[in-house]
Amino acid sequence: MLPLFAALVAVSTAILIFAGGMVTSTGSGLSVPDWPNTYGWFMFSFPVDKWVGGIFYEHSHRLIASTVGFLILTLAFWLWRAEPRAWVRRLGFLALGAVILQGVLGGITVLWYLPDPISIAHASLAEIVFCLTVTIALVTSSGWRQGYAAGLPDDRVLQKIAVATTATIYVQILLGATMRHTGAGLAIPDFPLAFGHVIPPHWDEKIAIHFAHRVGALCVSAMVLATAGHALYHHFGRIELRRPAILLLALVSLQITLGALTVLSGRQAIINSCHVVTGASVLVTSLVLTLRAYRARFDEGALGVRAPRIPRGPRRLSAHAGAGARA
Amino acid sequence: MVSAIPRPLLAVLVAAATLAAACGGGDKPQQQEAPKVVSNPVDPATAGSVMGHVTLLGKPPANDPIKTKSDPNCKVAISTQSYMVGTDGSLANVFVYVKDGLGNRVFPVPAETVVLGQKNCQYEPHVLGIQVGQTLDIISSDPTLHNVHGGTRDTSNQEFNYGQPTPGVKNQHTFSTKEVLYPFSCDVHKWMGAFIGIVDHPFFAVTGADGAFSLKGLPPGTYTVEAVHEKLGRQTQTVTIGEKETKDVAFTFKI
Q: Are residues A185 and A281 in the same domain?
């Protein structure tokens, strides 16, 4: 039941990110001026017939966020009671702390009239919360616990490019959040060119942010191609790597399409929000691929399971020590 | 008594007090000669006026009907109000004021309040004026929720956001510095917008449907008069009035 519940929490986090995207896309961030109350009502007793205009998006985002917060609280408690691996239990508490901080950031950004740094931090931390819930869902799954293709050696190249790809995607999402919250989403109004040129013929701060996000998309695409290509070419038989690699390629294609449509549609709210949640999905898919690439390392007992102390000696010897403890 | 306080806490308190004292030194007012002010500056016996008219040349965009379906409580059909133009080109909702020429005169803040209403899910009036320090009453008459979002992160006056959940709710607000124009919005109803001209004297007006304005009670002198429209921008003219003199000024915006 725990793996299923963890997966439910991860999916609910994705829904929350979509709801948050709708708040920004519809410009409804300040439609409920108070926090944590809603127009003076206790949040959960705010009448449904008053969910009008921008309030619908902002208030439903708050309710979904509260639900996700409660689910993560339950997950952390469940892990604390039932999970034997200390590092997984710690992940649960980390997710709980992150989602609480996320709620506070959401409240502050409303009370302070959406200052860019707070709003961007709110968007960025949302991705971290999503990564944490997906990680918990992954490491509590039966596939992970059984060790997938146990006994196969680490692929250091895959590990390195997968980490780099995940990091690049996160940076790209930070750029996207900055673009959204500084109102630069349509700073370059055409696509794929920029004002009819490959490089924008004139520049200001918003154009620079927007163009950086487009360049970031190219970098992410190249990194994803490299990572997924490597995984598929060298590990096609390993289903735990093949699946996220194929999904990653599909999601990146979808994400670029949505990005183009966001610009060409003049930031239509649903398209724009789909772009946000697909970006988050690209990130966690890359994270899953990365973690699975490192799966064998988790058997070495480095994260919470006490491994026998390795005597000091030549580095190449210690690199092979400690294998055998199951994570 | 002091000995009862834990040493680390005492150290923090001392450090905080020292820091506060050090920072406080930076707030000392600089020795600058204050501008010479003249209160009660207008002699009615010599005051003149500026009368005028604002016209738009060219065909303005239509004031499109607003889709209000996101709130079932907004039932009355409404349209945008950016270009209120008469058949003769008279342009309404233009804020006209004395931008320069009043010197160091300081004018009393009126006791009466200015009202910004919300009716049929629109601000009413769409453009208005107020003096710095004068009270603005913001009232909702609508059977729905509004948030009164004043300003932006770029405005000189502070941004604010009042929730008005029921009809009859009133918020009062004053502005601290002059600013033309300061915007209002409603994040519940994205189509709602209004503008207020904030000045530090009583010589301002908003053109009506006939495009006319008048700035009365001006002391003799030379003034810069500015006309500001939310979409069409700003125009200025210089005018000199003598004792009890009335001068005509015409502004023409083009589209």
A: yes
Cβ atoms of B114 and B137 within 8 Å: the answer is yes
Domain ranges within chain B, ordered by starting residue:
41-98+206-255, 108-200
Per the structure, the count of domains in chain A is 2
Length of chain A in terms of residues written: 327
- DSSP-assigned letter for residue A66: H
The architecture CATH gives domain B41-98+206-255: Sandwich (2.60)
A268-315: pLDDT as tens digits: 999 999 999 999 999 999 999 999 999 988 875 545 444 333 344 444
- In A100-229, the DSSP E strands lie at none
Same domain, residue pair A12 and A83: yes
Residue of B nearest to A116 (CA): B153
- List A residues 93-122 in contact with B (Cβ-Cβ < 8 A): 113, 115
ipTM: 0.79
For A71-100, how does the pLDDT look when each residue is reduced to its tens digit (9 = 90+)? Answer: 999 999 999 999 999 999 999 999 999 999
- Among chain A residues, CA nearest to B152: A113
Does the CB of A53 have a partner CB in chain B at under 8 Å? yes
Taking alpha carbons only, the member of A272, A277, A275, A282 closest to residue A251 is A282
CATH among 2.60.40.420, 3.20.20.70, 1.10.3720.10, 2.60.40.730 for B108-200: 2.60.40.420
Q: Is B48 exposed, middle or buried (0-12, 13-18, 19+ CB in 10 A)?
A: buried
CB contact under 8 A, A52 and B159: no
Q: Which of B122, B237, B131, B127 is nearest to B191 (CA)?
A: B122
- The answer, for B162 touching chain A at a CB cutoff of 8 Å, is yes
B143 touches chain A (CB under 8 A): no
**Residue A237: DSSP 8-state:** T
CA angle A304, A99, A83 (to 5 degrees): 30
Longest dimension (CA), chain A: 71
Residues A15 and A138 occupy one common structural domain: yes
